[in-house]
Amino acid sequence: MAHIYDTIIIGGGPAGLSAGLYAARSRMDTLLIERAKFGGQATTTDELENYPGSIEDCTGSSLTERMRKQAEEFGVSFVKNEVADVDFSGKIKTVKCKNGETYEAKTIIIATGAYPRLGGFKNEIELRGRGVSYCATCDADFFTDLDIAVIGGGDSAITEAIYLTKFAETVTVIHRRDQLRAAKSLQEKAFKNPKIKFIWNSVVEEAKGDEILEGLVIKNRETGEVSELEVNGVFVFVGYLPISEVFKGKVKMNDRGDIVTDEEMRTDVEGVFAAGDIREKSLRQVITAAADGAIAATNAEHYIENNFAE
Question: Which of 152, 189, 247, 302 is paired with 33 by a 20 to 30 Å CA distance?
Fold first, then answer.
């Protein structure tokens, strides 16, 4: 007879690790499946200053490794594998992995996260965390009184550009079109802000710098003219891509592919929860992901109590 877990958590970032901790502390038989590196996107953050109580020189990797060890100490089982398919149609849920292994559980917590869409310019990956950023809330303070750029023209880009003016000396918005796509109210605020400049019809071709970002090579899409902009930081806001492909048709999603939940992290399928960046939400941070995970695990426990009475 196959072993049936109380809960299977898919994804080992802050949301998944927090869910694992709360589930295991509640004496739930818990399996966590992660396809890559435990810690998720947080591991790409060299300095994590905005997580409450983070110790001196705290990094995303060090924080999430402590999360993993803590969950392990309470009894979470960990598997490194990639989920190939899921079946949520029955009372017992099934998770099939690419190596052929199949696992079953009474509840599922989806915490596969999302990743920022890349800008696509040369040296972007090499200088990530060294001047190239995808999160203003995370990294704005590092660029106090410096000149920075923002790539994008939608709501997120303009909202973050306005936010960044609280820290930076100047913020140059680089947009591939001749007008913004952001809401008119945001555009009005941005145009009135004396710290914000605009470069239209242009794309970033290359990030310059050895150890840290020193400038950007920019190409005008209409004229072909190439110029350089001296900046100490560039924030890329061209969208996030949820890691949700395997769950399409299995749970309700929005048009972007984010999983839709209520405030209790419940999806439209009984016994299936979602937590962290994979779900439809306004703020994607380590602290909100961890909170989501705790809520999801707690409600998974309640679901089992109400539906699997001995």
Answer: 302
Strand partners, 218: 204, 227
Mind listing the pLDDT tens digit for each residue in 80-127?
Answer: 999 999 999 999 999 999 999 999 999 999 999 988 889 999 999 999
Residue 175 to residue 172: CA distance in whole angstroms? 10
> Region 145-158: what's the mean pLDDT?
94
Give the side-chain half-sphere CA count within 13 A for 136. 22
CA distance 84 to 89: 16
- Full-model pTM: 0.76
The one-letter amino acid at 62: S
Burial 204-242 (b: 16+ CB within 10 A, else e): bebbbbeeebebbbbbeeeeeeeeebebbbbbbbbebeb
Residues noted as catalytic: 135, 138-139
